[in-house]
Amino acid sequence: MRNAHQFSPLVRAAVLAAAAFALPVAVADDDKGPLVLEKFGSFFVGGKDVAVPYRSGRFISPTYEAPDVLKIDQMYVQYMIPMQRRHRYPVVFAHGAWHTGKTWEETPDGREGWVNYFARQGFSTYWVDKTWRARSAFNAQTINAVARGDADVSTLPNIYVTGQQGWAAFRFGPSFGVANPGVQFPLEAVDEYFKQLVPDFSEWLRGSPIAQTYPAMTAAAHALLTKIGPAVYVGHSQGGAEIAGIVRARPDPALFAGVISVEGGACPPVEDAPLYKNIPFLYVTGDFTSPPANCPAFVDALKSLGGSGTSLHLPDIGIKGNDHMMMLDKNNEQVAQVLIDWVVKEVEAREADH
């Protein structure tokens, strides 16, 4: 197997961008030829200032113990702008529980991810590390205050973690090491996949294990969409479940050209259907499971209002073997093309008709 980091298109894009300054970036791929980018970069959105009485949980030295003002709740965003943009709307990718923006990049076995595939098809792509995750820093004072004795241990954040239990939870198979028949996940690279899983504060931030968005994430998503929007917002798993709260807070077509929930647990509640009248909605389910029970009612309600709603079970269109992590599966580009076809038909063409 080739060394994934040696041939990573994203790594090469970053290096070439630094060397070429304003010149186009040609990212070579062994089989597909170069992915030519106008720009590759990153930025932060959102965040707020918080005053802290000290900067560590344990005394280090007086130099590092003075009061300070820190930035928290900001969200890291990475992006690729293709040289040949063939689609009006950019696509934003938000990952699920225990994951980061890595979800959308190179697969565990070294193939290109969805952000590359969408860029090759002419979409500008943006992908995030959600607030309080990975490169989007958390508020360390929630821990430091307890270490200092200024807060009770009961106030410590609940940090959500998973590891090999993800094998069954993400439907690679019924138990660790046992595969579902025909599963598309690259099981030979599962150890590389497990390295991607990180601690997750989101359950604590929501105050509930229910998969709904939390205020910092809602604010950061709106800040990103205000900066680049309108955009097609793609949320996976927990990131898909959060769509209902993010849209409900500001159901504005100036932000959302369309929304796609990739196995986000459920469709929005039926009473929210009017919010999506001008925001096309797609729910996607892979194999070894069934679509959420509430999707038919939501889709019917949305269509009755003249909106665009779709619940798509991939096996129903002959695409089989996909687990929960379909963006990493061996047929990930086939699935990505299904999403692109939907965007072209239900977002771009629908807008042209109106």
CATH homologous superfamily placement: Alpha/Beta hydrolase fold, catalytic domain
Q: What is the CATH top level name?
A: Alpha Beta
- The run of helices and strands is HEEEEHEHHHHHEHHEEHEH
What is the strand arrangement across the widest sheet? Answer: 1-2-3-5-4-6-7-8-9
Provide a count of the helices: 11
**Could you tell me the mean pLDDT?**
91
- Give the number of domains: 1
How many strands? 9
Poorly predicted regions are: 1-23
User: Kindly, what is the distance between the CA atoms of the first and last residues, rounded to a whole number of angstroms?
Assistant: 49 Å
Helix content: 25-40%
Q: Rounded to an integer, what's the Rg over CA atoms? A: 21 Å
CATH third-tier fold name: Rossmann fold
**CATH second-level architecture:** 3-Layer(aba) Sandwich
Which geometry do the CA atoms define?
globular
Sheet of most strands? 9 strands, mixed
Give a structural overview:
By secondary structure, the protein is of the alpha/beta class. The chain has a single domain (41-47, 73-140, 152-353), classed as 3-Layer(aba) Sandwich (Rossmann fold), CATH 3.40.50.1820. The protein has helices at 9-20, 114-120, 141-148, 166-169, 190-194, 202-206, 215-228, 238-241, 243-249, 295-304, 332-353, and strands spanning 25-27, 35-52, 68-82, 91-94, 125-129, 231-236, 256-262, 281-285, 309-313. A nine-stranded mixed sheet has the order 1-2-3-5-4-6-7-8-9, with helices on both faces. The protein is globular, with a radius of gyration of 21 Å. The termini are far apart. The model is unreliable at 1-23 (pLDDT under 50).
